[in-house]
Amino acid sequence: NGEPVKMSKRAGTFVTLRDVVERVGKDVVRFIMLTRKNDAALEFDFAKVTEQSKDNPVFYVQYAHARINSVFRQAAEAFPGQDLSENTLSSADLSLLSTEEEKLLVRRMAEWPRIVEQAAIAHEPHRIAFFLTEIAAEFHALWNKGRDNTALRFIVADDLPATLARLAMIRAVATVIASGLEVLGVTPVEEM
């Protein structure tokens, strides 16, 4: 109902972690808990963590990962027989990534090792959760641009080199998201 529940052992008004995990799942609980600094109060909004929208950071990050896997399934259909392995993608011509959004996404991914290091040194896992939410938002923004402009789609039917470059870029996004989720102890989903 959107109303906060004040927890009190004496009054008997409390929710156990077990109750929360049973209601929404361990991955959701873990991710939401890790979006807060250690010294910050935790407000757990059941309505927010169960909705499928960008307002739910767990869903938004998981959806980006699942959406990337969907793009790869579509690419396999669009280019039957084409090798889309890591080896092929590693030799893609990344200079074909020329839009500002693509460049921003590549630059953001380059920050990943530093983010992990800083989070570990400072004992602040929320930095990883924030980073994953940001990179998911940038991926979704790029996806939406492709929906509006066919030249910006990840799969360009008549341009295999551009498709391979974009697939290499989003494979890297999926790798960063999966790696970040695993660092947080959350299982990445392949499809939704």
Please, could you describe this protein's structure?
This protein has 192 residues and is mainly α. It has a domain at 53-183: Isoleucyl-tRNA Synthetase, Domain 1 (Orthogonal Bundle), CATH 1.10.730.10. It is 61% helix and 0% strand. It has nine helices and no strands. The protein has helices spanning 17-24, 26-33, 46-50, 57-78, 86-90, 100-110, 112-122, 126-148, 160-183. Helix 6 (100-110) packs parallel to helix 9 (160-183), helix 7 runs antiparallel to helix 8 (126-148) and helix 8 packs antiparallel against helix 9 (160-183). The chain starts with 16 loop residues before the first helix and ends in a 9-residue tail after the last helix. 27% of the residues are buried.
Beta-strand proportion:
under 5%
CATH class of the domain at 53-183: Mainly Alpha
Helix content: 55-70%
Distance linking N and C termini: 26 Å
State the helix count.
Answer: 9
The average pLDDT is 86
Unreliable spans are none
Judging by the overall fold, what is the CATH architecture of the domain at 53-183?
Orthogonal Bundle
